[in-house]
Amino acid sequence: MGRSQDTFNKKEVRNKKEKKRKEKEKKKLAKKDVEKKGGLDDMIAYVDENGMIIDTPPDPTKKDVVKLEDIEISVPNRESMPKIDPIRKGTVSFFNESKGYGFIKDIETKEGVFVHVNNVIDEIKEGNLVTFEVEMGQKGPTAVRVKLTK
Length: 150
Known about the structure:
Order of helices and strands: HHEEEEEEE
Strand content: 25-35%
Largest sheet: 5 strands, mixed, barrel
Shape: elongated
Number of strands: 7
Helix content: 10-25%
Number of helices: 2
Radius of gyration: 38 Å
Structural class: alpha+beta
Strand order of the largest sheet: 3-4-5-7-6
Mean pLDDT: 86
């Protein structure tokens, strides 16, 4: 009898193909098992009233009844918003006379507001109590019409 015509490489390729076919068959069987166990029903999750994820559906008897009239889908009216006094009070926290700018700390909101010497009516210094109005400048809120209070 003669020797087999199969070389080592041919045997190796055949073995790899067989191994790949068996792995594909295993994946196919595993996928069928998952479908039999429940499939999509096992993947569904619910959110309870506290925002926690649970696996049981919520109790329909605990539903809150919301009236259609109570739902607002717009920006609140300006009449319902509290009116803010345009004239504010504050203290000068920093003022550089040579450069002509500084900052005023608002008494109510505790925010620092930029002030320029062009928007000052009376001369101001650090620590002075002033009244001012706020307008939006190029880089943010700016104090205008700044006056000393006595």
